[in-house]
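Dear support,

Our group has been running a series of protein-ligand predictions, and this particular one with cytidine-5'-monophosphate is the one our PI (initials K.S.) wants archived with full inputs and outputs. We had some confusion internally about which version of the output was final, so please treat the block below as the authoritative record. The input we submitted was:
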Amino acid sequence: MDIRDRVIVALDVPDVAQARSIVDTLGEEATFYKIGYELAFVGGLDFARDLVASGKKVFLDLKLHDIPNTIEKGVGQIARMGMTFLTVHAYPQTLAAAAKGAAGSSLGVLGVSVMTSMDDGDLARAGYGMGVQDLIARRARQIEEAGCRGIICSAVDIATVRRAVGESLAIVTPGIRPAGSALADQKRVMTPGEAIRAGVDNMVIGRPITGAADPKTAMRSILDEIASAS
Ligand code: C5P
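Confirmed final output from the archive:
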């Protein structure tokens, strides 16, 4: 893997002009971008197409969940847009339908394991009969069974995922903070080097790059750290 593909830069900005300015600033240093809700609904989907046309990879973080027919058709459209990754919630029907929609394309479907905002008490209130770690392990197996590409999980859940499914899923992880950078609202973090050593395949990094005084230098030092940990 091109080492730059390991870092997915989160374009969490409110308009396309700001997103474009980040992409222009990072230039060749960054090859992979994530677009989520904030940008998607203000032109971010067209911008995603532009990024693909200019040779970048795009992760659409839309966390889809619906009946199988709707998921399959929607995911098929996203596959035809040339996207590289797409998130869906990790329910067996949704995973299977998404895998079908992406079949024959290069789109990788990623299952969201358990939202990191949920703890055991939140799961109980939502009606689940198991805690976070057991649900992550179960969902990792279900993502694998459905033939999806990978899993979104927190760095602290990597061991649980590897125990459940070995090396079969790509692990994509947010909550990465280079040593010395601001935590902001992230609580359980790993440095890029720690994440690589823990077995992360792609890390999603936003503010430590996009909010840096010099984003290009911030990106370069993250890539150097990854290179020396690989
Ligand atoms: O700016 P920062 O590096 O914290 O951005 C992390 C990205 O990963 C954001 O787009 C955020 O929504 C996403 N994310 C996260 N924690 C999760 C799931 C997604 O930070 N548990």
